[in-house]
Design brief:
By secondary structure, this protein is of the alpha/beta class. It contains 16 helices and 21 strands. It comes from Paenibacillus plantarum.
Length: about 525
């Protein structure tokens, strides 16, 4: 395998594609046409070297055009999940002995191939998840970032004694090494169906673990494309086992399995808490405490005081609220504005929101569909609730299209205790509240069970210093939007009910997937 030197090629974030250039638009259109020619295929499970086609299938559809089937993905049951577990256990015994640098080389090669095929991966996401060109491109770039970053991190971690030596004492040779945990269950979300799926999986794999990957049922085809890529680069069979299936059947079974060593999960608070509860029970034959790495969403907000650049604040509020239809755990679904500038900011927010046109993601409309019928109906229900909790400033209903389209919706004069301000909606709905001053605005921001991302807009350095100290969230941004974390730049993870604060894309993340072993030898 060709070696890529981390010294010669230092880590850098993957550049985003500039779709203001016509050539880049044409390249994406060509990729979409290519992917459309492959729609409707059937996809197998991966259990070791065996590709298993099952009679039961998950049907993946285009949320922007519900008559279009993306693919039919084989569906695992408990028997196949057990077979995959046994395969992963067997593979772990050899994979854990592969040197860290050699494991990292598989990732470097995968990143290079994904970079070559970037538009193909993005095009599939456009069709399967309803992302527009920019959102899909950023997702693919983040996937590449995760692969590159974690590969380098594993090499660094494996050489920790050389870079951070232990205290020396006469007569002993002491070393610490980070060894893998075992078999992990990886349960990624549908909203970043490539980036988060890839990041959760490769971080576990490069650490020396083997995994059972159970992708989201709404976006299993893009997950399969990633697994097929890892097979192509020569990753040994059984390191990644691809087992789409029901959460209630396969997910719960593997979470409670005595041989499961860890569960990596990104999704809703409710399912995250269920996984945490199930994993806490010790099954017969289990000899460890299972580790749970959970990112469970948020009710993120942007605070604006009267000293802020109000134009920049309004742009950030709209981008944070409506990027990918608000279907991000980092989405700024709340805006809390000091009353002296409330009307001015609200006017600007409504004007920018009014520019967002709804339509097919493959035609690169700014506002696309939400992911599925269940989300569609739930979000519309929240909009009806909002009509009794605030004032509809724009939107407020369905949008046209043969899919799950909802108008970008803004509510004004919403109480901080309202459901719109407290509950995660995960859709294109923004609630705006008024605060008497900046201190009350921060208090209103903190009045939530979540704590993932937040933004504070101000030009007063004393207030900014206070915000940095008191705004309680895992990722706090000053004078910028609250979405768009970059791997290695903005390690991502939240407080409270937002999860276990497992900083994805950060320098301590792989420690969650390894255990430190000290060896001490008398000399």
């Amino acid at each position: 395998m060709t070696t890529l030197s981390t010294k010669v090629i230092p880590y850098a974030n993957e550049p985003f594609t500039n779709f203001a250039l016509e050539d880049n638009v044409k390249a994406m259109q060509a990729a979409i046409a290519k992917v459309k020619g492959e729609l409707g295929r059937e996809y197998p499970l991966y259990i070791g070297a065996e590709k298993v086609m099952t009679e039961a299938k998950i049907t993946s559809i285009n949320p922007g055009n519900v008559d279009e089937v993306i693919g039919y993905v084989s569906k695992a049951d408990q028997a196949l999940a057990e077979k995959a577990m046994n395969t992963a256990l067997e593979t772990f015994e050899s994979w854990k002995r592969v040197p860290a640098r050699e494991r990292a080389e598989y990732l470097f090669k995968a990143a290079a191939l994904m970079r070559e095929r970037k538009h193909e991966f993005s095009a599939l996401m456009i069709l399967e998840s309803g992302k527009n060109y920019v959102e899909a491109d950023v997702d693919t770039a983040e996937a590449i970032d995760f692969i590159e970053f974690y590969a380098r991190e594993m090499i660094r971690l494996s050489g920790i004694n050389e870079t951070q030596p232990l205290v020396r004492i006469p007569g002993e040779n002491n070393q610490i090494s980070y060894i893998p945990l075992g078999v992990g269950v990886v349960i990624p979300p549908w909203n970043f169906p490539l980036a988060i799926c890839v990041g959760m999986t490769v971080s576990a794999v490069v650490s020396g673990n083997t995994v059972l990957l159970k992708p989201a049922s709404t976006t299993p085809v893009i997950a399969h494309k990633f697994v097929a890529l890892m097979e192509e680069v020569g990753l040994p069979a059984g390191v990644i086992n691809f087992i789409p299936g029901s959460g209630a059947e396969v997910g719960d079974y593997l979470t409670t399995h005595p041989k499961t060593r860890f569960i990596s999960f990104t999704g809703s608070k409710e399912i995250g808490l269920r996984i945490n509860r199930l994993a806490a029970d010790v099954a017969p034959g289990q000899i460890w405490i299972k580790r749970v790495i959970a990112e469970m969403g948020g009710k993120d907000g942007i605070v604006v005081d009267e000293t802020a650049d109000l134009e920049a604040a309004a742009v950030a509020i709209v981008a944070s609220a409506f990027g990918f239809q608000g279907q991000k755990c980092s989405a700024g679904s709340r805006a809390i504005i000091v009353e002296s500038v409330y009307d001015e900011v609200v006017e600007k927010v409504v004007a920018y929101t009014n520019r967002l046109q709804s339509g097919l993601p493959e035609l690169n409309f700014a506002a696309g569909p939400v992911i599925d019928k269940a989300s569609y109906e739930r979000i519309l229900d929240y909009i009806e609730v909002g009509k009794s909790e605030g004032t509809v400033l724009i939107g407020g209903g369905k949008a046209e299209g043969n899919g799950y389209y909802i108008q970008p919706t803004v509510f004004g004069n919403v109480s901080g205790k309202a459901r719109l301000m407290q509950e995660e909606i995960f859709g294109p709905v923004l609630a705006i509240a008024k605060a008497k001053d900046w201190k009350e605005a921060i208090a209103m921001y903190n009045d939530t069970e979540f704590g993932l991302t937040g933004s504070y807009f101000s030009t007063d350095e004393d207030r900014i210093a206070e915000a940095l100290e008191t705004v309680h969230c895992g990722n706090l941004y000053i004078n910028r939007k609250c979405t768009g974390a970059l791997v290695g730049v903005h390690p991502f993870g939240g407080f409270n009910m937002s999860g276990t604060d497992s900083k994805a894309g950060g320098y301590d993340y792989l420690m969650l997937l390894t255990q430190a072993k000290l060896t001490s030898r008398k000399v």
